[in-house]
C-alpha cells in the first residue's frame, strides 16, 4: 500500500527544488544604468549577485554596494562583453554598443607653430607636459562621485563635439575628444560633479590653462583653455563649485571651454553624461 504522506512530501520537495532552480536560472546578474550605451559612453552598472565582473580580461572594482564603471571609446566596435564570475561559474553578458557617425570640423586661423610645432625646445616641452597629464589621469581612488548626475561645467554655445574629425588650417588631424562650450573670457567654469583636483597647470602648450578632476574608479574630467585656474592640486571640490574661467589659452582661436572625460586611458564623450 502506498504511503500517501510520504508520496506527498516527495512531490512537494521536488516542486520546491524545481521552483528554486527556475528562480535561480532567471535571477538577473547585473543591472546597467547607462541608457543606450554607444561609442564614447561611460557605462555604469551594478552586480546583483555575489561575484566578480570582468571586462576585456581585467576585473572591474566594485563599490561597497556593487556598482562598477567602465568606458568604450570612439573606435569601439561590436558588443561590450562582460564576464560574470560567481561560484566558480562564468557567464557572458553582452551589452549592445550603438555605432555613431562622426562630423567633420574645420578650424582655421591657428598659429602655424601650434598646428605643427617643429622646434626641439617646443617638442621637448610638449612631451613633458603630456607626461604630467597622463600621470594625473592614472590616479586611482575609490570615491564614488562618478555615480552622481553630472551637470554642464559652463554656460555657452556648443561649438565642438566629441569624435569629430578635425581639419586644422586645412590639415587633417586626429579626432576631437571633448565638448567645446564657447562663451566670453571670464565666464565661470564649475565642477560638474564632486571630486579631487589632480592637475592644475596655468599654461600648457596645447591646452593652455588646464585642470583635471578625479571622480573615482578611473573616471576623470579635464578642463582646457582656461583663462584662470582657481583651485589647487589635492583640493576637494563639490558639484557646482567654481574651478576656473573660460579663456582662449593654448591652441585656441577664441574663448571656449574644452571639457573632456576619461576612464583610465579611454577617451569618452562628456556630453553623453548630460543627455543621460
What does this protein look like?
The chain has 276 residues and is α+β, with helices and mostly antiparallel strands. It folds into 2 domains: 4-95, Immunoglobulin-like; 104-275, Glucose Permease (Domain IIA), CATH 2.70.70.10. The chain has helices spanning 4-26, 112-115, 120-137, 271-275; strands at 30-32, 42-47, 52-55, 58-59, 67-71, 80-86, 89-95, 104-107, 157-160, 165-168, 171-172, 178-182, 188-190, 195-204, 208-216, 219-229, 236-237, 242-246, 256-263, 266-268. The strands form 4 sheets. Strands 9, 12, 13, 14, 15, 16, 17, 18, 19 and 20 form a 10-stranded antiparallel β-sheet that branches. A 4-stranded antiparallel β-sheet has the order 4-3-6-7, with no helix packed on it. β10 and β11 form a beta hairpin. The radius of gyration is 24 Å and the shape is globular.
Rg, Å, rounded:
24 Å
CATH architecture of the largest domain: Distorted Sandwich
SS class: alpha+beta
Number of helices: 4
| Poorly predicted ranges | 6-25
CATH superfamily of the largest domain: Glucose Permease (Domain IIA)
CATH class category label of the largest domain: Mainly Beta
What general form does the structure show?
globular
Topology summary:
Blueprint: H1 4-26, E1 30-32, E2 42-47, E3 52-55, E4 58-59, E5 67-71, E6 80-86, E7 89-95, E8 104-107, H2 112-115, H3 120-137, E9 157-160, E10 165-168, E11 171-172, E12 178-182, E13 188-190, E14 195-204, E15 208-216, E16 219-229, E17 236-237, E18 242-246, E19 256-263, E20 266-268, H4 271-275
Parallel strand pairs: 8-10
Antiparallel strand pairs: 1-2, 2-5, 3-4, 3-6, 6-7, 9-12, 10-11, 12-19, 13-18, 14-15, 14-17, 15-16, 16-18, 16-19, 19-20
Amino acid at each position: 500500500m502506498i504511503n500517501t504522506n510520504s508520496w506527498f512530501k516527495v512531490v512537494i520537495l521536488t516542486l520546491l527544488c524545481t521552483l528554486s532552480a527556475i528562480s535561480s536560472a532567471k535571477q538577473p546578474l547585473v543591472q546597467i544604468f547607462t541608457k543606450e550605451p554607444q561609442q564614447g559612453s561611460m557605462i555604469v552598472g551594478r552586480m546583483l549577485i555575489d561575484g566578480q565582473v570582468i571586462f576585456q580580461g581585467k576585473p572591474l572594482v566594485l563599490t561597497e554596494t556593487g556598482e562598477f564603471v567602465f568606458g568604450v571609446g570612439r573606435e569601439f566596435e561590436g558588443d561590450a562583453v562582460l564576464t560574470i564570475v560567481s561560484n566558480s561559474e562564468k557567464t557572458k553578458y553582452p551589452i549592445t554598443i550603438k555605432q555613431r557617425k562622426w562630423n567633420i570640423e574645420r578650424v582655421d586661423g591657428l598659429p602655424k607653430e601650434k598646428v605643427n610645432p617643429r622646434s626641439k625646445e617646443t617638442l621637448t616641452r610638449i612631451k613633458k607636459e603630456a607626461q604630467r597629464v597622463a600621470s594625473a589621469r592614472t590616479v586611482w581612488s575609490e570615491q564614488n562621485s562618478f555615480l552622481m548626475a553630472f551637470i554642464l561645467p559652463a554656460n555657452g554655445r556648443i561649438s565642438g563635439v566629441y569624435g569629430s574629425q578635425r581639419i586644422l588650417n586645412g590639415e587633417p588631424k586626429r579626432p576631437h575628444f571633448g565638448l567645446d562650450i564657447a562663451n566670453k573670457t571670464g565666464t565661470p567654469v564649475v565642477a560638474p560633479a564632486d571630486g579631487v583636483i589632480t592637475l592644475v597647470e596655468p599654461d600648457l602648450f596645447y591646452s593652455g590653462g588646464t585642470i583635471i578632476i578625479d571622480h573615482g574608479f578611473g573616471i576623470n574630467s579635464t578642463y582646457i583653455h582656461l583663462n584662470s585656474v582657481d583651485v589647487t592640486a589635492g583640493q576637494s571640490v563639490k558639484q557646482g563649485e567654481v574651478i576656473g574661467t573660460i579663456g582662449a589659452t593654448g591652441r585656441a582661436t577664441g574663448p571656449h571651454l574644452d571639457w573632456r572625460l576619461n576612464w583610465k586611458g579611454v577617451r569618452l564623450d562628456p556630453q553623453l553624461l548630460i543627455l543621460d
